[in-house]
Task: inverse folding
């Protein structure tokens, strides 16, 4: 299965770029996730948490995995984090399935940066809420999520783990991250992130994995309208600043 020869940069921040993961990144991602979650094994009585057993080859093929490539640490251009999502169009929810930061880069704000990216992405997609879960024994994660506005909605056992489920409501469908929004790219992301399928289906996905999945046409139309309104508003503000709108 071939992959693009250039990185697909989704967002650029002062600390680095968030890109769609490529197959060439697979070994680095596996190593990073293992290192990030290994310290929790003692708390979990040696049982590997779900991110340590996930099929990242499949997540890359279906374009649901994103990497954080830093520009501020040495060596630069290093992958120091990753995050994966699933979009649920019917409930206008973006689910965060996994966030991992290289232990050597933890404590420097990169985890918060990936969480900011998730909110920026949710705003671009026009969804109403973000949802995630974490293990009850990963208390540091629970505290971080609460500090950035997530609220606990329940605790129950799933796949043999005691999990805490959390949610954050988006204030508006599209927030202050409107500049430079590419409607075509957003529509592609909607199709990729809304795609479903078992890992065994990967061989039938081809180069356009997730690209032909049906998404909510009304939501796409709503997104186009939102982006059009934002463009008009920015034009009006620019005219006012230049005196043309007086």
Result:
């Amino acid at each position: 299965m071939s992959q693009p020869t250039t990185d697909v940069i989704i967002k650029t921040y002062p600390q680095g770029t968030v890109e769609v993961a490529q197959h060439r990144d697979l070994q680095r991602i596996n190593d990073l996730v293992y290192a990030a979650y290994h310290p929790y094994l003692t708390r979990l009585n040696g049982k590997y948490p779900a991110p340590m057993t996930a099929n990242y080859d499949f997540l890359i093929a279906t374009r649901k995995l994103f990497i954080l490539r830093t520009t501020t640490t040495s060596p630069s251009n290093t992958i120091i984090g990753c995050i994966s999502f699933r979009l649920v169009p019917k409930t206008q929810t973006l689910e965060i399935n996994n966030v991992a930061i290289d232990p050597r880069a933890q404590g420097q704000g990169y985890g918060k940066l990936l969480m900011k990216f998730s909110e920026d992405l949710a705003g671009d997609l026009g969804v109403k809420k973000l949802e995630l879960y974490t293990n009850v024994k990963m208390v540091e994660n629970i505290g971080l999520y609460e500090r950035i506005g997530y609220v606990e909605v329940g605790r129950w056992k799933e796949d043999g783990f005691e999990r805490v489920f959390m949610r954050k409501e988006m204030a508006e469908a599209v927030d202050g991250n409107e500049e430079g929004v590419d409607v075509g790219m957003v529509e592609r992301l909607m199709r990729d992130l809304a795609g479903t399928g078992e890992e065994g289906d990967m061989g039938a996905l081809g180069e356009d994995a997730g690209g032909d999945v049906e998404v909510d046409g009304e939501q796409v139309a709503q997104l186009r309208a939102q982006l059009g309104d934002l463009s008009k508003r920015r034009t009006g503000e620019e005219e006012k600043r230049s005196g043309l709108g007086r």
Summary: Confidence is low (pLDDT under 50) at residues 1-7, 174-178, 197-216, 241-246. The two ends are 56 Å apart (CA to CA). The longest strand covers residues 78-88. The longest helix spans residues 217-242.
